[in-house]
Amino acid sequence: MSHKLGIIIPYRNRPEQLATFRKEINDYLDIDFELIVVEQSDKKDFNRGKLLNIGFLKAEELGCDYVIFHDVDMLPVEADYSYVNKPTHLITEVDLPEGVSRTLFDEYFGGVTAFPVNLFKQINGYSNEYYGWGFEDDDLLLRCLENHIDLDGKKVIQRGRECIALEFNGEDSFVAVPNKLSILRNFSIFTSFSYNNVISDVDLVTDNNSIFSIPGFDTTLTINSFFDLTFQFWKNDLSSISIPTKGLQAGHFNAIITVDNKGANRNTVDYQPPVVKFYLNGKLVGENSFDKLLNIQKEPYLYLGVGDPDRKEKNNWFKGKIDTFATYNDVLTDSECLQLGSNLKDSLFNLKSNDKLVSYYDSKFVNGTDLIDLRGGNNARVFNCEQTFTQYTSDITKPIPHRKEGKFKILPHRENGYKDGYWVSWTSRENQLRYLNNYYSLKSNYQKDGLTNCKYKVRNEFNSENYHHIEVML
Question: Does domain 163-390 have CATH number 3.20.20.140?
Answer without folding.
Answer: no
